[in-house]
Specification:
By secondary structure, the protein is an alpha/beta fold. The protein is built from 7 helices and 19 strands. The protein has an 8-stranded mixed β-sheet, with helices on both faces. It has a 6-stranded antiparallel β-sheet with strand order 5-4-9-6-7-8, with no helix packed on it. Strand 6 and strand 7 form a beta hairpin. Helix 1 crosses helix 3 and helix 3 packs across helix 7. It is globular and about 55 Å long. The two termini are 17 Å apart.
């Protein structure tokens, strides 16, 4: 299977995605970027998708291609912080950053670039020359670093999952791509998104396009991770279909087995609809830190496997 070009310019879209300020609850700027991107690029794609959004979907976005059998779910939101009172910060999701990390945002007084601090009780605070309006959201300052083998930047989780979905969209004939909200802070959008694609097109197979972590059993550069389980356990027969597709197409992959962590797949499993699902994603070092790092080989194998799965499932 032909892999995408490995030159630097091929990751320009990923860089753009990582620059967008869209923590949980504030996904609208990323949704609007995606909608504009699809409108502009779809004329080059094999199948022109139907773009589905509206108030009944809040800030989520659905792309429908041909006659769908399988859905790709990719969450748009990132971890970050909410300004509380005085100089206090509350976590959005589970950010993991050292003191001195640069945080950015905007309030009615203008653009913000402040510093993260911690008090003796390890409460998060901001250091800035003025008071930031309460309720303002802050995210890590973008710092996109690329070498011949690695990409390192804040928010590969889950802008890389979105990038993967958009690359697959270029050649997708039949399928649904669902861009969801709130995954990092407890979820909430997947139940109604899943209900829509199930009722509308009888789709009940889902691939979770998200990023996992490097561990003692999953390493950089050895291929995309196919998760046998995390906190949730997908149906074994469905996962085995995915493994057989990877083997048949000679795509590098690693099997992940974890007892913690969750994703949009957990909401599908706990829901009332008979969805089969599997988490399939590149492993990263430094999850939820400003220094998330992924091997390019794992990105390319992720895209290749998704292309194959959407054809063969």
């Amino acid at each position: 299977m032909k892999a995408p070009s490995k030159n630097k310019s091929s990751f320009q879209l990923l860089r753009q995605l990582c620059e967008i300020h869209a923590p949980s609850g504030g996904e609208l700027p990323l949704k609007e970027f995606l909608k504009d991107y699809v409108k502009k690029e779809k004329r080059k794609w094999k199948t022109k998708p139907e773009i589905i959004d509206g108030e009944e979907f809040q800030d989520c976005l659905i792309l429908k291609f041909g006659k769908p059998r399988t859905a790709i779910f990719a969450h748009m939101d990132s971890v970050g912080f909410t300004v509380r009172y005085f100089n206090q910060l509350l976590s959005i999701g589970s950010p993991d950053a050292e003191a001195g990390t640069k945080l950015v945002g905007v309030d009615s007084l203008g653009a913000i670039e402040c510093e993260l601090e911690y008090d003796k009780e390890n409460h998060a605070l901001y250091k800035f020359g003025r008071t930031i309006e309460r309720g303002t959201t802050l995210t890590y300052k973008n710092d996109f670093r690329e070498t011949s083998d690695f990409i390192q930047t804040p928010y590969l989780d889950n802008r890389l999952g979105i990038y993967n979905a958009l690359k697959v969209a270029e050649t997708l004939k039949d399928g649904v791509i669902v861009f969801s909200c709130w995954e990092e802070h407890g979820g909430g959008s997947v139940p109604y998104l899943a209900k829509y694609v199930y009722k509308k097109w009888s789709v009940r197979q889902a691939l979770i396009s998200d990023i996992t972590w490097v561990s003692d059993g999953v390493d950089h550069g050895k291929g995309v991770a196919i998760s046998l389980r995390d906190r949730n356990i997908p149906r074994r027969t469905f996962v085995e279909k995915i493994i057989s597709i990877a083997q048949k197409n000679k795509i590098d992959y690693q099997l992940e087995v974890e007892g913690a962590g969750s994703s949009d797949g957990g909401e599908l499993q706990r829901g009332s609809l008979p969805f089969d699902w599997c988490f399939v994603g590149a492993p990263e070092h430094g999850a939820h830190t400003p220094h998330e790092r992924v091997h390019k080989k794992d990105i390319l194998s992720m895209i290749s496997l998704y292309e194959a799965m959407m054809k063969e499932l």
